[in-house]
Inverse folding.
């Protein structure tokens, strides 16, 4: 079972979601062509910070897609923690009514901001993971002043050791060596391998420092980079099975009902 | 037969590269079915005097002329580069150059760039321009070097119709002269490692626009892994002669092999 832990779709033509310029049907077909059995998807608002109306519409459209592709497209509930009551209600609704498998947090707030904590507590109560956008640059990223990095995710994970946190796209978040080292001390942080960067040694270092049990295969729309870098990694059969889907299956099993 | 148009030996200051000498690069090539490689010095990108890197490169490649085809790094703002170029051609047997205009602080369109392109063209050398060395987001706090744009290389190709350009580590060619039939008059080839082969399918669109004779395989080893461009070859649905062109014939044509 190969599970892409970090995927995006656009939904039908609309004014709310980010369009990736490729129809959802083609994204799903191309991922299937590359041997991916299931994709864990979020739809993001075009305008940010996301409003409650915006993130609810993203999630509603995604619920329709998950119903069209049962077991193939799994949903993350995307919310903006700044709208705390609405975000908590939306997370619960997405997990319990839509059957989504986790929470997606983007860059509206640093993950260490207390405004995020109730969302983490809700995810813990619902026994679902949080996929968190992340990156570490040695320069200020003016377009994403509140982007979290692996060190901040590790700090959040220490505050909530019962939470399951996925650090987004090690191959799309700047200095990947920094990120691997930063998340090491937090065993409840998993590292998502996605992103367009396919540097030699990246996955091998992650395996060496974190162990294959903490890596989750992902693409984040960079499909050939996502698949190719795992093909290139020095993994034995069991480690490869874990990275490609075994670890994510274990995370999905936390909630029991959500399977692919 | 497979020719990799985008490989390196030596060191990169900001992280260890997994294959740094000829023997380890050859082992990696063997493991991936790569018969020949265009190779330049990674160290020379940051050496003040890049010729020292070219000398190190030649010391590694000289025993393997059948497999490792040396390309030299020349900085046209550095003292006596014309002599370095002559040594690289006459003693080292290089078949091309790798140019780093952003790192070496010149432009492909300024007097320094034009002089180097003209000198290289007069010697029949391929002019390979890496649009990036590493992803910009992971740059060190010591260096803030932007990518070369596809447009800059395409404009240089338009200005030098007899030059043979080989941009590598690039994308975004479709809206440049490289992606429009007849606009880039000289011979050129676009290396595929960063071109999309699914979703936006820039690779397939370029083939449709300008034919398969302007695309070449390249990996970026040892900065990047060859499995990604190899997967892109797997995804192409082309006649065998077009695949052979991309796998090796276009690269061989560029170097007159």
């Amino acid at each position: 079972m190969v599970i892409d832990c970090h995927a995006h779709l656009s939904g039908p033509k609309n004014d709310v979601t980010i369009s990736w310029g490729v129809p959802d049907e083609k994204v799903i077909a191309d991922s299937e062509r590359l041997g991916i059995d299931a994709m864990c998807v979020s739809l993001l608002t075009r305008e940010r910070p996301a409003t409650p109306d915006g993130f609810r519409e993203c999630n509603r459209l995604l619920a329709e897609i998950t119903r069209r592709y049962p077991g193939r497209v799994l949903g993350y509930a995307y919310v903006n923690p700044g709208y705390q009551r609405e975000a908590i209600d939306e997370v619960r609704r997405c997990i319990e009514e839509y059957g989504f498998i986790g929470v997606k947090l983007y860059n509206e707030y640093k993950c260490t901001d207390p405004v995020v904590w109730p969302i983490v507590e809700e995810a813990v109560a619902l026994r679902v993971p949080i996929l968190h956008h992340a990156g570490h640059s040695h320069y200020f990223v003016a377009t994403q002043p509140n982007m979290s990095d692996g060190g901040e995710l590790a700090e959040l994970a220490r505050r909530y050791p019962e939470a399951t946190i996925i650090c987004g796209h090690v191959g799309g978040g700047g200095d990947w060596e920094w990120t691997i080292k930063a998340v090491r001390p937090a065993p409840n942080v998993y590292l998502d391998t996605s992103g367009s960067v396919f540097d030699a040694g990246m996955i091998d270092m992650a395996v060496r420092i974190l162990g294959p049990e903490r890596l989750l295969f992902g693409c984040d729309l960079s499909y050939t980079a996502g698949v190719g870098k795992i093909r290139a990694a020095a993994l034995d059969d069991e480690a490869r099975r874990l990275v490609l889907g075994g670890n994510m299956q274990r995370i999905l099993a936390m909630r029991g009902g959500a399977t692919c | 037969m497979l020719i990799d148009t985008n490989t390196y030996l030596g060191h990169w200051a900001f992280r260890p590269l997994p294959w740094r000498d000829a023997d380890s690069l050859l082992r990696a090539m063997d493991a991936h079915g790569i018969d020949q490689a265009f190779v330049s010095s990674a160290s020379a990108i940051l050496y003040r005097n890049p010729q020292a890197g070219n000398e190190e490169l030649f010391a590694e490649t000289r025993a393997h002329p059948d497999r490792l085809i040396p390309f030299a790094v020349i900085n046209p703002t550095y003292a006596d580069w014309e002599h370095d170029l002559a040594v690289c051609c006459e003693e080292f047997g290089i078949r091309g150059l790798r140019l780093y205009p952003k790192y070496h602080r010149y432009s492909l369109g300024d007097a320094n760039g034009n002089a180097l392109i003209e000198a290289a063209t007069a010697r029949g050398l391929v002019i390979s321009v890496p649009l990036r060395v590493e992803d910009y987001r992971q740059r060190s706090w010591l260096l803030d070097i932007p990518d070369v744009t596809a447009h800059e290389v395409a404009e240089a190709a338009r200005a030098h119709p007899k030059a043979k350009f080989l941009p590598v580590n690039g994308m975004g060619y479709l809206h440049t002269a490289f992606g429009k039939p007849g606009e880039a008059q000289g011979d050129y080839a676009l290396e595929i490692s960063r071109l999309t082969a699914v979703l936006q399918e820039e690779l397939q669109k370029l083939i449709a626009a300008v034919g398969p004779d302007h695309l070449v395989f390249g990996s970026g080893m040892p900065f990047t892994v060859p499995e990604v461009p190899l997967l892109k070859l797997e995804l192409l649905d082309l006649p065998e002669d077009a695949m052979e062109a991309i796998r090796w014939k276009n690269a061989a044509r560029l170097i007159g092999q």
About this structure: Chain B has a mean pLDDT of 97. Chain B has nine helices and eight strands.
